Amino acid sequence: MRVCSIASGSSGNCIYIGDENTNILIDAGISRKRIVDGLASIGVAPEDIDGIFVTHEHSDHIQGINMMVKMFDTPVYATAGTLDAIRFKDKKGVISLQHLFEVHPDENINIGTLNITPFSISHDAADPVCYTVEHGKKKVSMATDLGFYNEYIVEHLSGSDVLLIEANHDISMLESGSYPYHLKCRILSEYGHLSNEASGSLICKLIDKKLKHVFLAHLSKENNYPELAYQAVKCQIWEEMGINELPFNMAVANRDKPSELVVL
Predict the structure, then answer these.
(1) Using N-to-C axis directions, what is the helix angle for 65-72 and 32-40, rounded to 10°?
(2) At residue 53, what are phi and psi to the nearest 5 degrees?
(3) Which CATH number fits domain 2-263: 3.40.50.960, 3.30.56.70, 3.60.15.10, 3.30.230.10?
(4) How far apart, in Å, are the Cα atoms of 75 and each of 12, 52, 54, 67, 108?
(5) Taking all residues of the chain, what is their mean pLDDT, rounded to a whole number?
(6) Minimal CA–CA distance to 121: which of 206, 28, 194, 64?
(7) Are strands 109-111 and 114-120 parallel, antiparallel or unpaired?
(8) Greatest distance between any 2 Cα atoms in the chain
């Protein structure tokens, strides 16, 4: 399996996961050009994408879907509520029903050689999910845009080789920043986003011998810094587990360019 975060952050998200036979995207929240350029950097043609799996309908997750469908006839997979929201936002009617495929939380979908499982999350969207992707004994999981995590989410993420985990904000930066009060409350709520510390605590529950790579994802441009997120998560892991040298590779997913390509 190959994994690459093409873009990750509050301004746009797109993750590539694939193997020698099957290629998918999780979200397409950046322009078609940036998606195509990002795929080209890892040797994947856009017409070879077998599907876009959407987490939810916010613009930083669906911005590029219309043009991917229009230019490459790419299928789109999402929950019923998310599909309805995508169609509502498609004012020009680019996406027809033949492009849309409904998924259901906790029900596996086989696309080529990949097994994809959506699971429900808490976020202020119509019907949001995140995904795990498996091929044989290899597993890649992502969890972003979740206001909190619980044992259900931990169970889905467990046993992963690669994790993409939200580390959205530093709480102090958010609380003292320029966002209006209602937006701060939304981000800090159970329908908002995980802080750096919450991200670290979640990762603590997922550390095992199988875990090789962790990407800290969906950082806020206004309320976080890559270096801060990295150190805060590392400190949280140390505080909870006493681990100073991480037993896996950890990096912050880039906002404006593809991150490291991980090959399993």
Answers:
(1) 70
(2) -100, 115
(3) 3.60.15.10
(4) 20, 6, 11, 12, 17
(5) 96
(6) 194
(7) antiparallel
(8) 54
208-254: pLDDT as tens digits: 999 999 999 999 999 999 999 999 999 999 999 999 899 999 999 99
Distance between CA atoms of 207 and 114, rounded to whole angstroms?
24
Query: What is the dihedral sign for C-alpha 119, 48, 256, 244?
Result: positive
pLDDT at 172 over 90: yes
CB contact set of 228 (below 8 Å; sequence gap of 6+): 170, 196
Is residue 86 a contact partner of residue 102, using CB atoms and an 8 Å limit?
no
**Residue 132 burial (10 A CB sphere; 0-12, 13-18, 19+):** buried
Q: 147-152 long-range contacts, Cβ below 8 Å, gap at least 24?
A: 147/122, 147/123, 147/189, 147/190, 147/191, 147/192, 147/193, 147/194, 148/122, 148/190, 148/194, 148/198, 149/194, 149/198, 149/202, 152/119, 152/120
Could you tell me the pTM of the whole model? 0.96
Q: Which amino acid is at 246?
A: L
